[in-house]
């Protein structure tokens, strides 16, 4: 399997059971080795007391893009730590885009940056995540048993 095909297959398998991202209306725009782009519409139910997107939803979008980027190599990979800096408000009614890219990967550890932008392409948040790969495959193992021919 090519690296791009592995990234796509891993994303498809994760997406199948990712109820949180799907429930928030996220969409996977693209995924590749160490990269992912996701979008999320900001609904009125995501507004905080100031009438802008609650930071927790922006964080969740960035975290989901991070997850798809760091799981693109076919190994179950989880967040070890992450931080976010909010730069501008996320307007209600807008579609936000999170673009994740791998900064470094060594052994079981990885470092990823995610930029969240508004519809005008201007950054509204910067997220950095550290990942840790586990000793498990995302994709089910292929069936290698042979049936006896009669």
UniProtKB/TrEMBL annotation:
NCBIfam families: PaaD, unchar_dom_1
Name recorded for this polypeptide: Acyl-coenzyme A thioesterase PaaI
Pfam families with a match to the protein in the record: 4HBT (PF03061)
InterPro entries xref list: Acyl-CoA_thioesterase_PaaI, HotDog_dom_sf, PaaD, PAAI_dom, Thioestr_dom
Family under the similarity heading: Belongs to the thioesterase PaaI family.
Keywords, ordered alphabetically: Hydrolase
Every Thioesterase domain range: 50-122
Keyword DNA-binding found: no
Molecular function terms from GO: acyl-CoA hydrolase activity
EC number from the UniProt entry: 3.1.2.-
SUPFAM superfamilies named among the record's database cross-references: Thioesterase/thiol ester dehydrase-isomerase (SSF54637)
Top-level taxon of the source organism: Bacteria
